[in-house]
Amino acid sequence: MLVAGIGLSASAASAAELELKYSSWLPPTSWVNTDLLLPYFDEVERVTDGRVAIEMLPKTVGTAASQFDVVREGLADVTLLIPGYTPGRFVTTELGELPFLETNSVEIIAPLFHRLFEQHLQPVGEYDEVKVLSMFLTSSGHVFNRVRPIEKIEDWQGLKIRSVGTGTTASLEALGAVPITKPSSEVFEMLTTGALDGSLSGPENLVVSKMVEVVTHGTIIPGGMYHAPVSVIMNKAAWEKISSEDQAAITAISGDVLAKVVGQGYDRADSKALETAQTRGTIHIVDASDELVAAMKEKTASLEGAWIERAKAAGLADPAAILTQFRADIAAAEAAKH
């Protein structure tokens, strides 16, 4: 059974039949690496009896936005992909970027999204050029900024806010903000120089991206302004070198199993980051009022329909029904949790 935090490095054993290279655009010390991905790679090595090993490269191959092509072309074998960093390329999984998906629990929504992907989204073929080991959603996105509290709909007006992808860009435009699509790794520098006023981010990014040192206001949105779709992908030729027995063993610890572990990790990191922000006392964080949420929902009401049309054009047969089912699955999981 895969357990987060079981190790701090993925060591490629010298006896491994297949040694794969992991390109990380996150810092090696990022908790996503040390607590989630490297322990997962250790588990891959364990369940294959040392035949498959995955080792992190000392430097990123390419950029955060180019990781799909890096793995597709075999410049690295494994990576963590954020589809939203290449807006418009992966339309089906933009579903995860829609606002107000009705849960702030990543443990709930992450494995549900993998199952949705496997059943409905993957067959469209947007990810056919790589092997998707797991597709999940990360923390629900809220707004943190260094200019003013966002208490009413007018407070969004003109703020330069970091966007994650196509869906969040559309949301920010609808709210009157100025979206700027950048990786989380660039947020701190852009905040300190004034190129950004704030960011749509999961709470864990307060610490990971050092926003806690710059922003002064935070507004927590029930259900989130978005969840970032993220995937662990492998080069197809590398996957095909693995025996069917070992492929089965890796599959058993991947998919929604890995997604749940990732979700638990994000929930822990979010809680810890909010505690850190509270301890510092430099950020005023509030829950969005019912009035603000209602106004935001009204402003962004057209986004679901727009995604549905794009998804139909991309080849998804009934996006509206899939979205409805996803919301129902989330509600059922939330009810079961309580």
Q: Would you mind describing this structure in some detail?
A:
The chain is an alpha/beta fold. The chain has helices at residues 31-47, 67-72, 106-121, 166-175, 187-193, 205-208, 236-240, 244-252, 255-280, 290-299, 303-314, 319-337; strands at residues 18-23, 52-56, 78-81, 130-140, 142-145, 160-163, 178-181, 198-201, 217-220, 227-235, 284-287. The chain has 12 helices and 11 strands. The chain has a 6-stranded mixed beta sheet with strand order 7-6-8-5-9-11, with helices on one face. It has a 5-stranded mixed beta sheet with strand order 2-1-3-10-4. α4 links the parallel β6 and β7. α3 (106-121) runs antiparallel to α9 (255-280). It is globular. The model is unreliable at 1-14 (pLDDT under 50). Pfam families: DctP. Keywords: Signal. InterPro entries: DctP_fam (IPR018389), TRAP_DctP_sf (IPR038404). This is TRAP transporter substrate-binding protein.
Low-confidence runs of at least 5 consecutive residues? 1-14
Strand order of the largest sheet: 7-6-8-5-9-11
Number of domains: 2
How would a textbook summarize the main sheet?
Answer: 6 strands, mixed
Proportion of beta-strand residues? 15-25%
The CATH topology of the largest domain corresponds to D-Maltodextrin-Binding Protein, domain 2
Helical residues, percent = 40-55%
Mean pLDDT: 92
By helix and strand content, what is the structural category? alpha/beta
Helical run tally: 12
What is the number of beta strands?
11
CATH superfamily of the largest domain: Bacterial extracellular solute-binding protein, family 7
**CATH architecture label name of the largest domain:** 3-Layer(aba) Sandwich
CATH classification, class level of the largest domain:
Alpha Beta
The separation of the N and C termini measures 25 Å
Q: What's the order of the H and E elements?
A: EHEHEHEEEHEHEHEEHHHEHHH
Pfam family, one: DctP
InterPro entries: DctP_fam (IPR018389), TRAP_DctP_sf (IPR038404)
Protein name: TRAP transporter substrate-binding protein
Keywords: Signal
